[in-house]
């Protein structure tokens, strides 16, 4: 199985040389998107989009307006504490602490970005200090974040904070048009009397909602490295909130689920995310099969069926991108056979925020 693609993987690639006059930067301050003006949210959205463009110049650009809207999206049971470094009305640095208010109360996830031409001025350290202070107030002793080799400054910065790598991930991409049709047919061939059937949903029907939430918790069996977190509980409310988040981003979330018709139980699923505004790129989210149902080629069936759906349902889609733990040999093998090629390295880190 593969871990869900996270939107926490946006990091600028390298500093740009510049000759501009240095701006005066205020210390980072708490930022409440709901209380902020539309212009302030857009300034932060512009920062996120600009940093992404530097890190991934060949990708379809992020839309600042969409990123600004996403700042207002908070899933049930979760909270986001944001800090921004400002120079007048311009957002130059940003950090976010995301955490559940009922589960894994010792952990939080973080993101930190600084404009490339404003680095090496202590802004990253100041943002990290603000994040650490807030985590301490909340009693969050473990902070989890990601770096990518597309932003080479991220790894040494993480090490300088004293963070430890907990999982080495391979980011891979698939060229949709290059997948052989005979491979797709072979992977979707099912035995006579097969009890499983596939469902394709943009929005999970109400009568399948609880079953879908239960199925998604299979991701707790995915490799987690040195992870000390308890298993995560997925609720129907969380599924609906994820659907709402996709709608706010203007993206289409396709979910394929395999049902055992003998029992009505959902035993496997795969999900992808695609936006017509960034049509060339599809993000592969989770793919998982219940342990008791493995060994029946359900994972290959789901993956092949999804490729065909993307070809039909997502005009302009060229690439599918996914993220897998290097130690997840089974899922990596399926992806390699399908045609995924290594594209980037993503490291998942644990950080105590300076606490022993």
UniProtKB/TrEMBL annotation:
An example of a Pfam family matching this protein is Acetyltransf_1
What keywords does the record list, in alphabetical order? Acyltransferase, Transferase
Q: Which residues form the N-acetyltransferase domain?
A: 42-186
Task: Name any one GO molecular function.
Answer: N-acetyltransferase activity
Q: Does the keyword Nuclease apply?
A: no
**Matching PANTHER family:** AMINOALKYLPHOSPHONATE N-ACETYLTRANSFERASE-RELATED-RELATED, N-ACETYLGLUTAMATE SYNTHASE-RELATED
Report what the protein is called: N-acetyltransferase domain-containing protein
Q: What is the lineage of its organism?
A: Bacteria, Thermotogati, Deinococcota, Deinococci, Deinococcales
């Amino acid at each position: 199985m593969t871990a869900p693609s996270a939107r926490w993987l946006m990091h600028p690639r390298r500093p740009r040389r510049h000759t501009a006059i240095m701006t005066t930067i205020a210390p980072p301050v708490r930022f409440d998107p709901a209380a902020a003006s539309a212009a302030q949210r857009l300034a932060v959205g512009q920062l996120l989009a600009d940093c992404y463009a530097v890190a991934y110049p060949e990708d379809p650009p992020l839309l600042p307006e969409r990123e600004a809207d996403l700042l207002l999206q908070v899933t049930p049971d979760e909270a986001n504490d944001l800090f921004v470094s400002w120079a007048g009305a311009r957002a130059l640095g940003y950090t976010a602490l995301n955490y559940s208010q009922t589960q894994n109360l010792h952990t939080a996830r973080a993101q930190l970005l600084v404009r490339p031409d404003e680095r090496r001025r202590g802004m990253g350290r100041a943002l990290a200090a603000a994040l650490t202070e807030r985590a301490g107030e909340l009693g969050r002793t473990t902070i989890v974040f990601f770096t990518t080799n597309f932003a080479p400054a991220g790894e040494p910065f993480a090490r300088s904070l004293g963070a430890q790598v907990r999982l080495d991930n391979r980011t891979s991409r698939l060229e949709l048009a290059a997948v052989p049709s005979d491979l797709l047919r072979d992977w979707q061939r099912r035995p006579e009397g097969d009890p499983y059937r596939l469902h394709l949903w943009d929005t999970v029907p109400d009568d399948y909602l609880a079953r879908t939430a239960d199925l998604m918790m299979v991701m707790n069996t995915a490799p987690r490295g040195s992870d000390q977190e308890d298993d995560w509980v997925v609720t129907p409310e969380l599924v609906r909130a994820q659907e709402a988040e996709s709608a706010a981003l203007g993206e289409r979330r396709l979910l394929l689920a395999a049902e055992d018709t003998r029992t009505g139980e959902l035993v496997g699923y795969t999900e992808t995310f695609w936006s017509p505004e960034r049509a060339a790129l599809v993000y592969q989210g989770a793919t998982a099969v219940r342990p008791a149902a493995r060994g029946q080629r359900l994972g290959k069936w789901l993956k092949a069926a999804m490729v065909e759906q993307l070809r039909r349902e997502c005009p302009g889609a060229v690439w599918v991108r996914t993220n897998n733990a290097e130690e997840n040999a089974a899922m990596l093998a399926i992806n390699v056979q399908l045609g995924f090629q290594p594209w980037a390295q993503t490291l998942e880190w644990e950080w105590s925020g300076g606490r022993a």
